[in-house]
Structure to design on (611 residues):
């Protein structure tokens, strides 16, 4: 039974409503839990993920949905203005009001509707006729967006045909100025940031993602009717200023977007799929039954690359000279002037050109293009064959066998919850990007059944970005792992390794990308009885895709010892993967390692399942 509550209405209407709500079991309904953002964790009691006290009308409303429902019905009879929102409860909690009214059928005379002018003005300004789910692709140089991101586009009355940039965007993000990816991941894993929803002009997000960060956008229409769109907006209004604890892997942008959409459409259900991690591509797939065909919005860098590929080397060189300030020569083509102008814009956004240089240069190029009399001049960027929902699942299990030069056959099992490596099929993912988190490997010796930890790679990120005449990006790598020593199965304890460094990648030769990194490797633990080792040297590699379903990676490294164990470390490896359909693959790897005078070799064969 719900505890008795003093009704604010003279005729005891609040008590009547509470009794009716109890009879229907509304406090225990999933819709009420959705409105309160109540989570049922794997361990511990259910509790709202919202941390702002003002969001709850009962003192214990965050962990007692029944008390919160009772307090909500009482508050709806009270026109008192509430801090910090400076609105009455009815005006703050419009989605709660609409849901309870639909089930309890409020008496308009005994519970009169209170005027909410500010909210109504806000709703009228947005009034979306269409809701889109937007996926900006992964961006390795942004700590919050290594896996990509999701947000909503709300097409309101100001959006006419061909002007989607005038729409609004609903976004959830961590509040942090952090630019260091490792620091962001560590603090994000520990819940060190506050997350909030915001509504802002969509063109600002397009500028941030597609132009400033060179991220392609995928826009998916969401099949919401008018009632669902109204519930979405009412709940967004409720959440204005509400603080959540942001978790990098779990309660992140994509997960919280799902919880928002579930208020509008309670049929959206992901079960326990995201109890431990939620990546944007996986949450996007959870919405896929209600998503329409996507619209592809290429980034400025993608457009520039396509414009450059459409020109031969000489004409491309002329466009580069124009972008650097050379005056247009007679007979210059509109396509060259378009490329030059986009390069000026790109260099300005990258901070390579000051505004006082970029603006007049861009205007001069646009005038020259108009003077050519040619129509167009812009290149249509082809839409990729596979959108992010069509790529492989981010969770991966590998079962296999390993033969080592020390002798003895070994059974292997490797599990990775997220996300993608260079030999995983690239369809739906960015090329040259590797992001592995919490990659766990176990080895079992078949002779005696002994199972040991081979590695636990907490972080393994690799960027291979080929340089060209248009772009000169810096590639980079970082890896943090706890693993067994490379030489000898029985050497314990395990060692902790941090390795990585900057590098360069060179243009494609057919399907081949060549790359090299200056790698610093720091190792602490049972390192040849010295306790630590510090090594520095080159790591070189080739990455190729000879056939659509066949990927190859060849790497060689030489890391001379600097301190601790001063033995040189030399290694060479060859890995190949054959894709056996969307969800299966077969990987064959061979590796040789020399550490001082010691040597080891191994051969791996693994069957891959993505799920």
């Amino acid at each position: 039974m719900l505890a008795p509550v003093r009704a604010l209405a003279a005729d005891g209407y609040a008590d009547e409503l509470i009794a009716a709500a109890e009879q229907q079991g509304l406090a225990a309904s999933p819709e009420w839990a959705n409105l309160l953002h109540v989570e049922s964790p794997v361990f511990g009691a259910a509790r709202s993920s919202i941390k702002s006290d003002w969001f709850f009308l009962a003192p214990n409303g965050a962990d007692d949905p029944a008390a919160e429902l009772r307090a909500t019905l009482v508050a709806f009879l009270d026109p008192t203005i509430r801090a910090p929102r400076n609105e009455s409860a009815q005006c703050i909690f419009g989605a709660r009001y609409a849901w309870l009214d639909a089930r309890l059928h409020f008496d308009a005379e005994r519970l009169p509707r209170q005027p909410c002018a500010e909210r109504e003005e806000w709703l009228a300004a947005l009034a979306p006729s269409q809701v889109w789910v937007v996926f900006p692709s992964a961006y390795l140089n942004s700590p919050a967006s290594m896996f990509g991101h999701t947000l909503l586009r709300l097409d309101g009355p100001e959006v006419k045909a061909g002007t989607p940039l005038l729409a609004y965007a609903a976004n959830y993000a961590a509040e942090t100025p952090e630019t260091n990816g490792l620091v962001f991941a560590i603090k994000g894993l520990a819940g060190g940031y506050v997350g909030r929803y915001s509504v802002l002009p969509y063109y600002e997000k397009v500028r941030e993602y597609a132009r400033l960060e060179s991220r392609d956008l995928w826009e998916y229409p969401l099949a919401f009717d008018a009632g669902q769109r109204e519930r979405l907006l009412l709940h967004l209004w409720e959440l204005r200023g509400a603080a959540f604890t942001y978790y990098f892997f779990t309660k992140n942008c994509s997960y919280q977007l799902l919880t928002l959409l579930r208020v509008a459409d309670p049929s959206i259900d992901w079960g326990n799929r995201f109890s431990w991690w939620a990546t944007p591509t996986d949450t996007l797939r959870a919405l896929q039954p209600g998503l329409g065909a996507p619209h592809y919005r290429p980034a400025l860098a993608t457009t520039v690359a396509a414009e450059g590929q459409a020109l031969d080397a000489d004409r491309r060189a002329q466009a580069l000279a124009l972008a650097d300030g050379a005056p247009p020569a007679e007979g210059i083509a509109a396509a060259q002037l378009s490329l030059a102008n986009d390069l000026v814009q790109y260099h300005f956004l990258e901070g390579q050109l000051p505004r006082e240089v970029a603006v007049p240069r861009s205007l001069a190029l646009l005038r020259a293009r108009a003077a050519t009399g040619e129509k167009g001049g812009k290149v249509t960027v082809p839409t990729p064959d596979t959108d992010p929902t069509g790529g492989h699942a981010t969770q991966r299990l590998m079962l296999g066998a390993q033969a080592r030069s020390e002798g003895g056959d070994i059974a292997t099992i490797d599990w990775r919850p997220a996300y993608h490596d260079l030999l995983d099929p690239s369809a739906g993912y960015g090329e040259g990007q590797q992001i592995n988190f919490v990659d766990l490997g176990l080895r079992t010796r078949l002779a005696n059944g002994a199972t040991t930890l081979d590695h636990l790679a907490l972080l393994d990120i690799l960027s291979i970005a080929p340089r060209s005449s248009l772009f000169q990006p810096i590639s980079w790598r970082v890896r943090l792992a706890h693993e067994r020593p490379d030489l000898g199965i029985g050497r314990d304890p395990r060692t902790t390794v941090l390795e990585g460094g900057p590098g360069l990648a060179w243009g494609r030769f057919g399907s081949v990308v060549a790359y090299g990194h200056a790698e610093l490797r720091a190792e602490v633990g049972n390192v040849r009885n010295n306790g630590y080792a510090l090594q520095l040297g080159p790591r070189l590699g080739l990455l190729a895709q000879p056939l659509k379903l066949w990927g190859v990676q060849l790497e060689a490294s030489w890391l001379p010892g600097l301190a601790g164990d001063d033995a040189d470390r030399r290694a060479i490896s060859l890995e190949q993967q054959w894709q056996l359909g969307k969800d299966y693959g077969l990987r064959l790897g061979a590796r040789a390692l020399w550490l001082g005078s010691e040597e080891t070799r191994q051969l791996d064969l693994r069957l891959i399942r993505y799920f």
In short: The longest strand covers residues 532-547. The chain has a mean pLDDT of 90. The CA atoms of residues 210 and 299 lie 4 Å apart. The chain has 15 helices and 24 strands.
